[in-house]
UniProtKB/TrEMBL annotation:
Protein name: tRNA threonylcarbamoyladenosine biosynthesis protein TsaE
Keyword flag Nucleotidyltransferase: no
Superkingdom of this protein's organism: Bacteria
Organism: Candidatus Enterococcus willemsii
InterPro entries: P-loop_NTPase (IPR027417), T6A_TsaE (IPR003442)
Location, primary (coarse class): cytoplasm
Family of this protein: Belongs to the TsaE family.
Subcellular location(s) per record: Cytoplasm
Sorted UniProt keywords: ATP-binding, Cytoplasm, Magnesium, Metal-binding, Nucleotide-binding, tRNA processing
């Protein structure tokens, strides 16, 4: 669990994730509306060296950003009700970049076999505060989690 006191710390965590991400890493971002999933993705892009404007792909489902250190595949599956298995997401999950899946918990059986889930919770009293729980599903996700925590703790 990582406690984030403000937007600046949220951006710092996201930048770290982008800096330590490797090809075929998969992140699933879950949390209520307004919990910070897209904000986190914008910071991840910054950490990857992507300076293009990041927009939520709510209606397009997938946006690809290829000008960073590794490609970023930004997905928002909130509006995908059926047929997630037919979207061809495996190509991204097993590709040469980092897949960030907002609302990925809705994919169920179409999720990658190996992924790190970041569960974002808003503080009820302070809109700036967040708690992020990191749950791993697979060995590559465990390694990603450890890289994130190592840098987070080092940078204090």
């Amino acid at each position: 669990m990582i406690a984030l006191e403000n937007l600046k710390q949220t951006e710092k965590l996201a930048t770290i994730i982008g800096e330590v991400a490797q090809p075929r890493d998969n992140l699933v971002l879950t949390g209520d509306l307004g919990a910070g999933k897209t904000t986190l993705t914008k910071g991840i892009a910054k950490g990857l060296g992507i300076d293009q404007m990041i927009k939520s792909p709510t209606y397009t489902i997938i946006r690809e950003y290829t000008q960073g250190r590794i490609p970023l595949y930004h997905m928002d599956v909130y509006r995908v009700e059926h047929g997630a298995a037919d979207l061809g997401l495996d190509e991204y999950f097993e590709g040469d970049g980092l897949s960030v899946i907002e609302w990925g918990n809705l994919l169920e059986d179409a999720l990658p076999e190996d992924y790190l889930e970041l569960i974002l919770e808003k503080d009820r009293q302070d809109e700036q505060k967040r708690v992020v729980h990191l749950e791993t599903f697979g060995p590559q996700a465990e390694q990603l989690k450890q890289r994130i925590l190592d840098v987070w703790e080092r940078q204090g």
